[in-house]
Each structure stands twice: as structure tokens, then as C-alpha cells.
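note to self: dont lose this again. the chain is below, predicted strucutre after it. 139 aa total, dont forget to put it in the shared folder this time
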Amino acid sequence: MDLKKIEKFIDKQSMSFICSIDNENYPNVKAMLKPRKRNGLKEFYFSTNTSSMRLKQYQKNSNASIYFYHKGLIKYIGVMLKGTMEVLTDQETKNMIWKKGDTMFYKKGVTDPDYCVLKFTATSGRYYCDLETESFDIE
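---
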């Protein structure tokens, strides 16, 4: 499995899906913009609201997955990564992924108490393309 190929694929996607586990142990999926930052296939950073329902789910059960896909005219490609999600509220991490236009969502800026970061750490993944799938581990 060419993991660099998967990284390039993920970088081209404009959105992603994150999955959390609710209080009844059911998966909950949410569409998100693409990650703000990525370190290989191991770490992904997303911005979100501290008031988000998903935040409470990750604090209770950190098991998570993220998914990226592209549907072309003929070809469908998907990448699912499994791992854990952390909720980060430290100012250094918030500063690291902050973008100028974020004040549209967080009126008080980078120090807005309703702004935090989700850090996903992957342990394994699954790649789908041309009716074939392949699992892989992430170290």
C-alpha cells in the first residue's frame, strides 16, 4: 500500500466525515471541512465548537474514525481511518490551526471559549478503489 498516495488523495479533498460514539453506543457521523493540519496519516486536526454534541461524545468515548472520499464519473475512492479523538483547548494548539476567516464562526477570535480543536490519531485504515479494498496499519 502506497501511503504517500493516500496522503495526496486526502489533501485534495475539500471535506471529510468524522464519526463518534453516542451514549447508546451507536456511531454518529458528521460532515466537516477538511482537516486544518495533518501529520502524515497519523494525526489530523479539526476546528470545532466546545458546545458541540460531538465534543461530549469524544470526551466520554475517544474511539473514532474519519472518512474521505471522491466520486468521479467512473471511479470512486474512499479512505477510512480508525483511531482516537482528543479534545484540545490549549491556546498553543488553537493558535496553530486558526485561520483569519474563523471569526465568522468564533466571534471572539482565537481565544473564543466556544473554539477548540479535535485531534484525531490514527492506528489503522482501509483504502477502497476500483472495487478493491486494502487494510493498512499506521505507525
